[in-house]
Every structure is written in C-alpha cells, then in structure tokens.
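Trying the structure run again after the queue cleared.
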Amino acid sequence: MPKISAPTIAAHRARTRERILAAVAALTRTQGIDEISMTDVAAEAGITRTALYNYFPDKPALLLAFTEQVTAGFVDRYRGALPAGAPAADRLAAFVRFQIEGIAEHPHPDAAELGASLGPDAYQTLADHVAPMHRLLVDVLRAGVASGEFAPMAEEATARLVMALIGAQRVPLVRGETTPEAARGLVTGFTLRALAAGPAAPEAAEE
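Done. Tokens:
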C-alpha cells in the first residue's frame, strides 16, 4: 500500500485523515453511504483497516466526520459564491442549488435515516453538524421578510419545510428519475411562489 510522506507526524496524520475522508466521498458516488464498510474505506484510502481504526474507532465516528466536512464545505462554498447583500431570492436559489448538487454528488440517506442507523447519540451529533445549514437558510428567509421580498412567516418552521422539499428530491435523484437541474428548478420555483409577498400571503404562524 502507498506510503504517505510528510515532514512531521502531525502532518502525516492530517494527510492520512484527508485521504480517508476523500475515500468516503469517492465511495458515496457508487454506493449508498449506509452500505459502505470500514474495509471498503481502508482499501479506497490505500491503508490497512487497522490503520483506519487508529483514526476512527467505528463507522459512526467516520460518517460523522465526513458529514461535518461536507457541511463545512457547503457553508464555505455558499458564503463565497454569494455576497450577503444579494437579494434574498438569489440567495435562496443558490442555497437550493448547492443542496441539490450535494445530494447528486454524494448520495446518502437523509439525516433521520442515517441517524437511525448510527444510534441516538450519533444522531444528535449529526444534527449538530448540519445545524449551520439550517441557520443559513433561516437567515435568508429573515432577510427576505425584512426586505419585503417574502411574506411574513415563521422562519424556523419554514426553513424545515424548505429542507423537506429539498430532501424529497433525494430518492428521484439517486434513482436517476430526475436531474439536478430539474430538481433545483422544481424546488426553487415552488418555494419562491410560496414565499412571495402579496395580499394573498397567509399570516405568519406562531413558532
């Protein structure tokens, strides 16, 4: 198996960890994340399974680390691609696009299904990892209400509804029944129509 050269032990460990998470990312493109084994990851990363366990004691720890990396990458990508001062509708469209592209790139069960397979403790940690995406969406909705682009709403509850709409495209995307472009257009169009400010907009519900 290939060796990973680095000037220090810390650098070597960091590079090995990157290879491991890159291996998980590669495997998710060809099989469900819940089907990936530690043996699969070790082989893809070019290390022994024993070495893999030195970095991640079990599959839940590995998948949580991968989820955290994906979430952090999403937040960085979103913030870098769209200025905070952009119209709320543009920010929402970008949020949906990056979410849909993420599902298409790394197919995996939704948080509830993945959490159920990992156990209650891991599920709570998983929820904490994905919370930054929820907060981003809430900020977009609040900005839209403040600017008059969106009708008054219960932002936290509405953000959960939007995430559910995005999540509903997961199975069709994985099965090839739709494309990222079609899924993005469907979710973005439906959401913007539902949020549009106007005399017919419903009153905001209590949180």
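The radius of gyration is 19 Å. Worth checking whether this holds up in the mutant runs.
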